[in-house]
Amino acid sequence: MRFIDEYRDPDLVQRQARALASVATKPWTIMEVCGGQTHAIVRFGIDELLPPGITLVHGPGCPVCVTPLEMIDKAAAIAARDDVIFCSFGDMVRVPGSDENLLTVKAKGADLRIVYSPLDALEIAQENPAKQVVFFAVGFETTAPATALAVARAKAEGIPNFSLLISHVLVPPAMEAILSSPSNRVQGFLAAGHVCTVMGYEEYEPLARRYGVPIVVTGFEPLDIIQGVTMCVAQLEEGRAEVENQYTRSVKREGNEPARELMAKVFRVTPRKWRGVGEITASGLELAEDYAEIDAGKRFEVEERTAEEPAECVSGEILQGLKKPADCPAFATSCTPEHPLGATMVSSEGACAAYYRYRRIQQ
Q: Are residues 234 and 260 in contact, defined by beta-carbon separation less than 8 angstroms?
């Protein structure tokens, strides 16, 4: 396969690492904003190939990790109802809530089903008209078009027993929140290639200009990432702050226009709380007024639930690039994938899970 032969070719990666070393003359701190990139960096040791002074920090690029605690509690409360079939992606079922996770609720008798698409949940609703079927819609802009399609179909086909608990979040506002923080140390970004496949990268251009930071849209393979870092460092060394596209094989500047149009029709932008980070203005999606009757939060009256994060979990600082997993006293001791304190340890894209799997022996 081409990506095995080319994008993971160790000789090409080493060659690109040498090219990066020839460009870098100063220390720079760069953040990747994608959990998939974080796992690739840790798994393949890409950060260990970088020249001294070039530091990669991990951002809030895991949608499971940033889903707020009270949203897990809302999901658990809905799933526990006798009249509900609750549908979720598999990586959400072990994320800890205040008292329990969705898997615990299932063990108590809830009808919890793992699906691969919101359209699967819509089909389950059609097959079970006597039950309320709820889909837990989580993710960045990457998964939002599929959610929007399911919403549009449910509305058009008049499926009354289908609703969604929505926790979609948007990447650019989170990047701006990091850049505007007094504790920020990020000087450049690797933007998530899969998000930009949908949204394009026009919306990053004002951020690059406003904060004077280079942003490089980057793919997920080792060669992609080290090329993205090289492009970012080259801009920093030259005093430029532009948006560049390393991931040209998948991303266009305008993104996927039909998907964006559907999202604009079905959703509206709203403030959203991010787990461990807090509320970020205009960083989430909720159903537009024309689709409000499909909102499970309203249908099951769980909107007012709130919850406090456990004090011993530092995942919020990890998600902001202020700490790395090994900096947490609970890492691999009282916090493990079997008994996670936070979502960054249990999510398949979480930074703590990556370090636990690939770097724990080194600690």
A: no
